[in-house]
Design a protein that fits this description.
Two copies of one chain form a homodimer.
Chain A lengths: L4 H35 L2 H9 L2 H21 L3 H34 L10 H22 L2 H29 L6 H33 L6 H5 L2
Chain lengths: 225, 225
């Protein structure tokens, strides 16, 4: 293994760089989808809807890199945790890319109608979800457990905003049949943004696993038993 | 490796059994959630909502098994593909368990109102999603690519039903404000079931990767470029 060690270190470094690049793309696509919705910009909505190919290619490439690293270098301990976690994070980031498409699809249907209301909480959810993803990826690179734990704490905020948006839109709907379809689209968008936050949470949990080898997932469930 | 080979084969067999057991639980929970919705059975809805702990425990256990197998036996070729794919399938099955909870949560809100309409397409979506998951897991165990490919073909059917349910419910809503909230819950449930189908699709794609070493994900995207 000593002979191969420099190659391994390089490959692992390159793997992290590619994952981070993919994370940046996923983040940017969520931001673009929400911003296009707020601006009611059909051109940019269409761009997000059709722009999934780069993330999909990275998804395959990163999986392939992980597989080859495992096969060639048979890493152990923290290096093994990094590679296995990268397989999982890669899956989360690919889903975030899909969710950006889902947001843009719902936005396309939304802007076909008159605005239901000024959009304030949805962009706020978008900002929170994007920053959670950003911080989770930073925590991954710097192996910073504290940053990762702060990501976990913000997930409840997204959940609360999602519920608030739901209740508010239901009130808007009563007696205004024309607003029904666009309001349902906003409800769906709030769910997609909540899911982006869930994926950021997954990434943050993987970071804690990499650094401390401790699995913090499902903690509330297990504590409740 | 020769000395350790029997242990490795046993561990791998046990890993597959546990994953299959988890898959059976996930399937059953989706079935229970949809059936409780159709029967308007609040007791069983509550059971699904609170019954996620077994799947969550299996999620952690299976991840841990994969990690230990990689660290101890350093599998290669098809065995490595099985273990890496198990990490991914495990994540898909855990999400299916979450989606069963999401379905039950929406069902709880739905049954608090008068029925919007007879539920025919949603149970149909539930049956399709459940059978996709079932067949994908069977394909995993038997490494049957043909079965896996049939799973992929059924995903479009779920998408079409989801869109049909959406259009139909919007029509129901017009002029009937009391039906708005329950109808939105049915729309959300149809989305959750569509996602169950997506996870089954992921599992089927992993099976094709295990058997043939070929990655069929994002195929339409890549063909389009």
């Amino acid at each position: 293994m000593t002979k191969e060690a420099p190659h391994f270190a390089e490959e692992l470094e390159e793997l992290k760089k590619r994952l981070l690049f993919m994370g940046g793309l996923a983040e940017e696509r969520v931001r673009a989808a929400v911003s296009a919705l707020v601006m009611r910009d059909r051109g940019r909505i269409a761009e997000v809807m059709s722009g999934d190919a780069s993330i999909n290619r990275l998804h395959l490439e990163i999986d392939d890199r992980c597989f080859k690293i495992l096969a060639l270098y048979q890493p152990v301990a923290v290096d093994l945790r990094i590679v296995v976690s990268t397989v999982k994070i890669n899956k989360d980031l690919e889903r975030v890319g899909d969710l950006a498409v889902n947001i843009a699809e719902a936005a396309e249907r939304y802007v076909a109608h008159e605005p239901v209301k000024p959009l304030i909480d949805l962009p706020r959810m978008g900002d929170i979800a994007q920053s959670m993803l950003h911080d989770a990826l930073n925590a991954f690179v710097s192996r910073n457990v504290e940053t990762a734990e702060k990501v976990l704490a913000r997930d409840d905020l997204l959940d609360a905003l999602k519920d608030q948006i739901f209740r508010e839109l239901l009130t808007h709907l009563l007696g205004e049949p024309r607003k029904i379809e666009p309001a349902v689209q906003l409800i769906l968008i709030s769910r997609h943004l909540e899911r982006v936050g869930d994926h950021a949470t997954n990434v943050a949990e993987d970071v804690i696993f990499i650094v401390e080898g401790r699995d913090v997932r499902h903690q509330t469930v297990d504590q409740a038993r």
